[in-house]
Amino acid sequence: MLSSTVTSLTVLLIVVFLFKEGVGVFDKTAMEEGFVIAINKNNPVDKLSSEQIKNIYDQKIISWEEVGGKKDSIFLFRVDDISNFYTDEQIGENFEMLPYRLSSLVDSFPGVIAFFPEKYLDKNFKGKKLEADKVTLAEFFGGEEWFPTAHPSAQLGVKPLILGTLWVSLGAILLALPLALAAAIYMSEIAKERVRRIMKPLIELLAGIPSVVYGFFGLVVIVPLIQSTFGVAVGETGLAGSIILGIMALPTIITISEDAMRNTPRAMKEASLALGASKWQTIYRVVIPHSISGISAGAILGIGRAIGETMAVLMVTGNAAVIPHGILEPMRTIPATIAAELGEAPNGGLHYKALFALGCVLFIITLFLNLTVEFISNRKKAHKH
Amino acid sequence: MYQIDENKVTRKKKRNQKFVFFLFGAMGYFVVALLVLILTFIIYKGASAISWDFITKMPEEGMTKGGIFPAIIGTLCLVAGSMLFAFPIGVLAAIYMNEYVKDGFIKKFIKQMTNNLAGIPSIVFGLFGMSLFVNKLGFGDSILAGSLTLGLLALPVVIRTTEEALKAVDNTFRQASIGLGASKWQTTRRVVLPIAFPNIITGLILSVGRVSGETAPILFTVAAYFLPKLPTSIFDQAMALPYHLYVISTSGTNIEESRPIAYGTALVLVIIVLFTNLLANGLRKYFSKKVKMN
Q1: CATH number for the domain that contains residue B221
Q2: A309 touches chain B (CB under 8 A)
């Protein structure tokens, strides 16, 4: 009794912990902690999104007009630039005059935007401090850049990661599905029992190989192969990930769809054969339609496995967090991002929480896929009775 | 009048069928060939790296020489720890679900939860383990935290195989036992469990194989890149085989030079999987023969 409660509790606990940490990301600002962004007090701009801040910092946005302000060029001031404006004596030996100087500097340039540490904020600061916005859902899911350690404002757009995951998983399923279906049909309908009895455990063995071994195999065999076949600069591409994930998804799809096909009532098959249909006609007119729900369940579980797979993907896809345009580019998936970055993210910080939020996204996707499978097989049962 | 040439139709049908069947057969064998290819590649490349020293010595010179002894010990600790956690809970949960709970909402709910647990990606287990065991409960990066995380991952596997084993026990055994006046618990302990035992053990062995190869859950809960000595308590960090393979094949300082070690480590992992699978299959056969003889 207690023990099965533990099982159910675990799932709930996972949900609670994951979401508690993950949702925390929307309670934080993308600004680096302890930094201030200040502008001239006559500047009408009140808010900047983290993307805008980054673009200003990279000097991609050079006029206030582009962010809803006056027609005035942006004067970017970093705290290191202070020596261009004041001498060492004016700042003071221990920077004791720095807060005051910063204040008057911001006051005297109308187009200024200044980034500096919070400890240098003057008590009577004459500029306007920009309130950093909290990370919003729209930014999280709509942002096109994932760069959580960017200075001074982290970029937390998960779009490239979600797209990377989709590309790799879809590629995998496109490769695996035809192969797996053919193998399943062969095993359940065509092969002799003796052959089947050898093949089945072998294919189950394929499921037992650790993902890190698949990743290693991909790294030393498939990656160089792709590099030489397609003449790309780096072989670590989405395609390499798709191939490895495809191989890994094979046993799941084969086992489940083979089981479904073998469950086709013998009477149905015999009826079809007796009417003069060939064995092949029987397979694709009777066996496949009858087991279609099992086949789709297998396919969905295969996708689920591909989406959640971490190590193999991490090792072969190249991990570039940019929006992919083709299968021959390096990509980065959600699980690979978590695995690669969590070790470096400071505990409890924005980056850490953002990675937990990614975990939530992953959890929701796989839960949705699992429930779909459940729904399909339940409907099938209801149909029978 | 239009006459159907029956022979022609049959011939066409037959030709189609022959072609399609050939195709399916080829694809089926292709899948098997993939497996054989991967295995022979790892075995061929790894065989030259494996020696007695390789599995009993510490790594040397930035992982380019020496052995993988601490990683093997670490993995053994993790497997033992996770099984100590998952096996009793999993088996008890399965017994409870199969023998005691009546069909209804609770059973459905527990089943659904177990299924969901099985579907959660391993990296999410890693996140959870880090947040609960490492941070909240303050175990730090330790064998304890890693074992618990891996144990949670193995739980649904253990539950599922045990349940299947229990379901395979013919109901007449239970009825006979109850009919002789045995209590429910006596029936379960003296009749159902002994019959289901071989299959339960098989499930246990298979989950050992699975746990020993998992990397993502241990990344942030226990695994260390290099430790000069073996772990002495359950609160120590440990090296582990799958993590070792990951690190030396992707981010080591001398990737090229440590390749032989990587091949060797991959081979050890594959051997563990092959061994557990063979053992499980062998046991299954052995026990089923024994049952038949009685």
Answers
A1: 1.10.3720.10
A2: yes
CA distances from A321 to A167, A314, A318, B102 (A): 13, 12, 9, 50
Tell me: pLDDT of B253 over 70. no
Complete DSSP assignment for B63-105: TTEE--HHHHHHHHHHHHHHHHHHHHHHHHHHHIIIIIPPSSH
User: How many structural domains compose chain B?
Assistant: 1
Give the tens place of pLDDT for each residue, B116-158.
888 888 999 988 888 888 888 888 888 899 999 999 989 888 8
Domain boundaries of chain A, sorted by first residue: 35-132, 159-384
The pLDDT tens digits of the residues spanning B224-239 come to 777 777 777 778 888 8
Chain B CB within 8 Å of residue A179 CB = yes
Interface of A with B in 12-41 (CB under 8 A): 12-14, 17-18, 21
Q: Which of A44-53, A283-292, A356-365, B86-95 has the lowest mean pLDDT?
A: A44-53
- Least CB–CB distance from B24: residue in A186, A250, A370: A186
Q: Regarding the domain delimited by A35-132, which CATH topology (the fold level of the hierarchy) does it fall under?
A: D-Maltodextrin-Binding Protein; domain 2 (3.40.190)
On whether any CB of chain B is under 8 Å from the CB of A180, the answer is: yes
Rounded Cα distance between B227 and B232, Å, is 12
Chain B residue with minimum CA distance to A281: B17
* Interface contact flag, A310 B123, Cβ < 8 Å: yes
Contact A185 B24 (CB under 8 A): yes
B176-211 pLDDT, tens per residue?
998 998 888 888 888 888 888 888 888 888 888 888
Which residues in chain B have Cβ-Cβ distances shorter than 8 Å to A247? Answer: 34, 38
A248 vs B contacts (CB less than 8 Å): none
Range of the domain at B180: 52-293
A224–B contact, CB cutoff 8 A: no
Q: What is the CATH number of domain A159-384?
A: 1.10.3720.10
Alpha-helical regions (H) of A109-189: 137-142, 159-185
Residue A295's CB is within 10 A of a number of other CB atoms, namely 24
Distance in angstroms (rounded) separating the CA atoms of residues A74 and B194: 80
A77-81, A169-173, B6-10, B247-251, range with the lowest pLDDT? B6-10
Residue B118 confidence (pLDDT): 84
A306: number of Cβ within 10 Å: 27
Shortest CA distance from A207: residue in chain B: B210
Of A8, A213, A335, the CB nearest to B269: A213
DSSP bridge pairs for A75: A112
Q: How many whole angstroms separate alpha carbon B190 and alpha carbon B80?
A: 27
In a domain, B25, yes or no: no
Is B216 in contact with A335 (Cβ distance < 8 A)?
A: yes
State chain A's mean pLDDT as an integer.
83
Of B42, B100, B209, the CB nearest to A208: B209
Contacts of A3 in chain B (CB under 8 A): 88-90, 92-93, 96
Closest alpha carbon to A79 in A94, A58, A63, A95: A95
| Mean pLDDT within A294-315 | 89
Residue B15 in any domain: the answer is no
Instruction: Check if A35-132 and A159-384 are the same fold.
Output: no
